[in-house]
């Protein structure tokens, strides 16, 4: 997308016409390559981006652009043709506050930059003019200035990841991606996957579906991690082996010890039983030195086995109560995760993809 197609308040400011459209429509489609692609601008988010009320530093603009890019890249939200139902991030008050000062690490910036170069190299249909792609590369690399981008290029060249040759026009270059770059990216993406995942061990009964959907899953999402449940994974091996493999590939484990004995939350399924397997999964994770967060419905705390009852459990009453407490505990224990929580973990995002009116 070209930088002049849509207004971009992150790098270009907000004028009266744009603000009026946001107030009328609730959200307005904005974006530029420099900002990492499209985003849906909401009223309070727009007010926070107004330069006369909250002057943004170049670092803050680069932060917002990086996280917009991170959201958009898997769905290629840089052009008008996108998969139906996939929409850009909604830039509202919460999103701005969460990402304004959330500076990505240098290694993450380098990795995202390399992913962008590799994608462009593999999908181009003609000689590739890097000068024309500079804005998008700066967003992918979390760059404040062209000098920041130059440092990323220089490091990639010194590592023999990228070879630069003159392009068709004055000052233009074509980048050729070498095999070591692909090996580095694959290794780092595997590592990032482990940093993102939070394994969920719980009783898979109908009565617990709402607890997961409205409590555990959004808590992990909002903390910046990706929830993993074994019953929602596709695999060929047996279940116990896959459970251990998924735990090994996770950053932490959430173990919910709610049991269907005396718990009122379980009346919908009329089943009796205890989540015995949860103890095995929690114990295995602890043996690996992995953080394990214990949760249990307040009516079931007395049913927790005496060997683990002394461990600090999050006791909850409702799904909303669990969501708030669990997110707070995850962030206090591990810090915010690397995943953009504005996107639904199934690859969708809230809102509607509408054109600027």
Give an account of the 3D structure:
With 357 residues, the protein is α/β, with parallel strands linked by helices. It is 42% helix and 13% strand. Strands 7-6-8-9-10 form a five-stranded parallel sheet, with helices on both faces. Helix 10 links the parallel strand 6 and strand 7 (226-228). Helix 4 (58-72) crosses helix 7 (134-140), helix 6 runs antiparallel to helix 7 and helix 6 (106-123) packs across helix 9 (179-196). The radius of gyration is 23 Å and the shape is globular. Residues 233-237 and 344-357 have low confidence and may be disordered.
Provide a short characterization of the protein structure:
With 357 residues, the chain is an alpha/beta fold. It is built from 13 helices and ten strands. Helix content is 42%, strand content 13%.
What descriptive keywords fit this protein?
3-stranded mixed beta sheet, alpha/beta, 5-stranded parallel beta sheet, 10 strands, disordered C terminus, 357 residues, 42% helix, 13 helices
Beta fraction: 5-15%
How do the strands of the widest beta sheet line up side by side? 7-6-8-9-10
Distance between the termini: 18 Å
Count of separate DSSP helical elements: 13
Q: pLDDT under 50 segments (min length 5)?
A: 233-237, 344-357
Produce the secondary structure layout.
Layout: H1 9-12, H2 16-25, E1 27-32, E2 37-42, H3 43-49, H4 58-72, E3 90-91, H5 93-99, H6 106-123, H7 134-140, H8 146-158, E4 162-166, E5 173-177, H9 179-196, E6 197-201, H10 209-222, E7 226-228, H11 239-248, E8 252-256, H12 276-287, E9 292-297, E10 313-316, H13 319-334
Parallel strand pairs: 2-3, 6-7, 6-8, 8-9, 9-10
Antiparallel strand pairs: 1-2, 4-5
Helix pairs in contact: 3-5, 4-7, 6-7, 6-9, 10-13
């Amino acid at each position: 997308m070209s930088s002049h197609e849509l207004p971009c308040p992150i790098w270009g400011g907000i004028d009266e016409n744009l603000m009026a459209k946001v107030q009328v429509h609730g959200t307005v489609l904005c974006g530029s390559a420099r900002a990492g692609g499209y985003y849906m601008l909401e009223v309070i988010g727009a007010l926070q981006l107004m330069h006369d009320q909250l002057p943004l530093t170049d670092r803050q603009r680069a932060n917002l652009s990086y996280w917009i890019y991170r959201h958009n890249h898997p769905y290629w939200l840089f052009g008008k043709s996108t998969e139906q139902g996939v929409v850009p991030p909604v830039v509202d008050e919460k999103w701005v506050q969460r990402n304004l000062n959330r500076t990505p690490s240098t290694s993450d910036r380098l990795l995202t930059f390399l992913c962008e170069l590799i994608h462009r190299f593999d999908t181009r249909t003609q000689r590739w003019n890097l000068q024309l792609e500079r804005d998008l590369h700066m967003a992918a690399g979390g760059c404040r200035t062209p000098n920041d981008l130059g440092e990323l290029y220089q490091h990639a060249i010194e590592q023999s990841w990228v070879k630069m040759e003159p392009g068709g026009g004055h000052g233009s270059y074509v980048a050729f991606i070498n095999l070591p770059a692909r090996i580095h990216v694959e290794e780092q993406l595997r590592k990032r996957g482990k940093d993102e995942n939070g394994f969920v061990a719980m009783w898979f009964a109908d009565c617990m579906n709402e607890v997961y959907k409205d409590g555990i899953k959004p808590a992990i999402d909002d903390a910046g991690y990706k929830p993993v449940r074994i019953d929602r994974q596709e695999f060929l091996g047996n279940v116990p082996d896959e459970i251990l493999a998924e735990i090994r590939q996770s950053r932490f484990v959430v173990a919910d010890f709610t049991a269907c004995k005396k718990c009122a939350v379980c009346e919908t399924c009329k089943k009796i039983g205890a989540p015995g397997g949860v103890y095995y999964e929690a114990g295995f994770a602890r043996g690996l030195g992995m953080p394990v967060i214990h949760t249990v419905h307040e009516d079931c705390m007395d049913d927790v086995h005496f060997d683990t009852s002394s461990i600090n459990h999050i006791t909850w009453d409702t799904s909303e109560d669990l969501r708030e407490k669990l997110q707070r505990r995850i962030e206090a224990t591990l810090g915010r995760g690397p995943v953009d929580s504005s996107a639904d973990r199934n690859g969708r995002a809230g809102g509607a993809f509408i054109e600027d009116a």
